[in-house]
Specification:
Mean pLDDT: 93
CATH architecture of the largest domain: 3-Layer(aba) Sandwich
CATH class of the largest domain: Alpha Beta
Distance between the termini: 52 Å
Bound molecules: adenosine monophosphate, magnesium ion
Low-confidence stretches: 170-176
Structural class: alpha/beta
Helix content: 25-40%
Shape: flat
Largest sheet: 6 strands, mixed
Length: 614
């Protein structure tokens, strides 16, 4: 249902409209929608003054364009200019008093001042309109109170039977009930378990190929605010709405003049600084206008003379203002003037589809007047730890317990690469617990990363539960690498939606290395990044390490570049439980299997996972 939810956010505030204060409430609501309605789209956002006619017109126009939900923030109080409820009432065809009442009741628990709110909720055509208070905190809180009812209300308004049933299930906690049904997996005796993994071993490159082939690249895009657009992939070419600069501007602190009059004396007619309106009287040959950098120039001015190239000839009686100056250096036409559109012409293409948005891109978007931008959609990611021995990292350990470190390490590793992931908790090694945790994770996320429970023990249940309870397809269950051998990749269909599962090994280093080698390239590939692999260089390794394993080793190391070559120093003991081997590691050095007698001169493929050190 969320998939089709479209929102309009209307901030009603004189001061925001006049640019005196910032529209934090509108921004906050966008964030809340992004957080809670994963598939929702904000198709309209605007700021209007507390003016009934303007509010009504905006509401009507958004209703006409089929927006599902309009949230207004502001103008619901008792001051003379507060008219949002009146505008809303004039527009709606049916009132929804229950919704505003509920919001009010809940608000009383927060502040008795809620009694001064006059918020109205109602329906016009197919659009639900909800008045929220003006404060950023209040608007978020009240939105939170009614949020769960929104999909259901929209489904009812649109007479959408299928989604009404789903929304009912959601509201009544049906998800939880369904997820709590027991697993089909039974834990057998240890004697009966497989002695060898039934899953064929895949090479690392082969495994990644399978992942990328199975998941493909998204074609879905979404409109997001440019404040949140860093590192996203542009899904559209961007054209300048306005020229930059939008007016003829001075590049220096100095004097706007007519160049033809040459050097010599000028009367200082006025002073115009950045932000002022331009002088509307054209400039005469014997005049100058004192200007600051960024100030608009008057008609007739065709040069700016920097203050360093002038001297004062005459001042006002109080000695404060300049009346006449002398220009020491002959100006030339166009000198120190930024013509309209000289940086960016109006309607010119400024950014390309497929660009990964950098700080520079955000600057360009802001300057040419795009407050929202179309980017390729990202998957929503959940991370789940499994293991009877695990406790929350905040807790004290009892005998036999360890703190869950994988979940936080992976969430932060993803964040380092700009991907947000949610904490899906810890599941005990029991089929019912694993099933319930997976089910809940699937109902919230597209991509689930689990750690632990993919090896050969009778309590390693991830693959079994995925297959038995979710009819998952295990694309591979073993990879030829050290660490990371039991890495598992599966896809499945959950309530009509495709889910992707990375079942990573529990050892902390294995979990992180496989996140780096498989999950991060997959995330980059699926959002259509052209460069989705970490760069690979050749490096020599110190100290010389042998690999006695039949699998290639991915050693954690610190790589330096000096005198034209890369040298990797391994980060101590490389056992897969020792998470400290990842601290300060900026590379994974690949040592081929059974590799013993190599010299310090030999070089190895080295995956750069961080910044080079000096
Ligand atoms: P498993 O893959 O479940 O057999 O776990 C392998 C090893 O990793 C065991 O020693 C676990 O205790 C440890 N381990 C599993 N999950 C975590 C976790 N979330 N945090 C830290 N260590 C873990
Ligand atoms: Mg385990």
């Amino acid at each position: 249902m969320d998939k089709h939810l479209t929102f309009g956010i209307l901030t009603v505030s004189d001061s925001c409209h006049d640019g005196i204060s910032q529209d934090l409430s509108g921004q906050g609501l966008c964030q809340e929608i992004d957080n809670h309605f994963r598939q929702a789209k904000i198709i309209f956002q605007d700021v209007k003054p507390d003016d009934q006619k303007q509010i009504e017109q905006t509401l009507l126009s958004w209703c006409l364009q089929g927006c599902n939900v309009i949230l207004t923030t502001g103008g619901t109080g008792c001051s003379p200019r507060d008219v949002t409820p009146e505008a809303t009432r004039a527009v709606i065809e049916k009132e929804l008093p229950g919704m505003s009442q509920f919001m009010l009741n809940k608000s009383f628990a927060v502040t008795e001042m809620a009694m001064l709110s006059r918020a109205v909720c109602g329906i016009r055509m197919k659009t639900l309109i909800i008045n929220l208070p003006g404060s950023s905190k209040g608007s978020k809180e009240c939105f939170g109170f009614v949020m769960n009812a929104i999909p259901h209300a929209v489904a009812l308004i649109n007479n959408d039977l299928e989604n009404i049933v789903r929304a009912h299930r959601h509201i009544q906690g049906g998800d939880v009930g369904e997820c709590s049904a027991p697993s089909k997996v039974r834990i057998g005796g240890a004697a009966g378990r497989d002695r060898e993994s039934p899953y064929p071993m895949k090479k690392v490159t082969e495994a990644l190929e399978i992942i990328l082939r199975e998941c493909g690249r998204t074609t879905d895009s979404e409109l997001i605010r440019i404040e949140n657009s860093l590192n996203r992939v542009l899904a559209e070419d961007i054209y300048a709405k306005d020229p930059v600069p939008p007016f003829r501007a001075s590049m220096k602190d100095g004097y706007a003049v007519r160049a033809k009059a040459g050097s010599g004396q000028r009367k200082v007619r006025a002073c115009v600084v950045a932000g002022d309106k331009p002088e509307n009287q054209p400039l005469n040959y014997d005049e100058a206008i004192r200007v600051s950098t960024g100030a608009p120039l008057p008609d007739g001015a065709d040069a700016v003379v920097q203050v360093e190239d002038t001297e004062v000839m005459q001042v006002t009686a109080d000695g404060n203002e300049e009346l006449k100056i002398n220009i020491l250096v002959k100006p030339s036409v166009g000198q120190d003037i930024r013509e309209i559109g000289s940086d960016i012409p109006a309607n010119s293409k400024v950014l390309d589809k497929m660009d990964v948005i950098s700080a520079g891109h955000v600057g360009v978007l802001a300057t040419v007047g795009h407050s929202r931008v179309k980017v390729f959609r990202r998957s929503s990611i959940g991370v789940l730890s499994t293991g009877n021995e695990l406790i929350h990292h905040n807790s004290n350990i009892a005998p036999g317990q360890i703190r869950d470190s994988n979940k936080l390490a992976i969430i932060n590793l993803l964040e380092q690469h700009s991907y947000a992931a949610s904490d899906c908790g810890i599941a005990k090694d029991h089929p019912d617990a694993v099933k319930t945790a997976l089910c809940r994770a699937f109902s919230r996320h597209d991509v689930i990363i689990t750690t632990g429970g993919v090896s050969m023990g009778e309590y390693d249940l991830i693959k079994k539960v995925l297959v038995a309870d979710f009819s998952a397809l295990i694309h591979f269950g073993r990879v030829d690498m050290k660490p990371g051998k039991p890495t598992t990749f599966a896809t499945l269909n959950f309530r009509g939606q495709r889910k992707i599962v990375f079942g990573l090994p529990g050892n902390p280093v294995s979990a992180c290395v496989t996140t780096l080698l498989f999950v991060i390239p997959f995330l980059k590939y699926s959002e259509r990044r052209e460069n989705y692999m970490f760069p690979v260089v050749q490096s020599s390794v110190v100290p010389v390490i042998t690999n006695n394993d039949v699998r290639p080793s991915y050693l954690r190391a610190q790589v330096r570049f000096s005198q034209g070559s890369f040298t990797a120093t391994t980060t101590g003991n490389q056992v897969s439980s020792r998470i400290n081997s990842l601290v300060n590691a900026n590379a994974l050095v690949i040592i081929p299997p059974n590799y013993k007698n190599y010299t310090a001169l030999e070089t190895f493929s080295t995956i750069l996972i961080g910044d080079l050190v000096k």
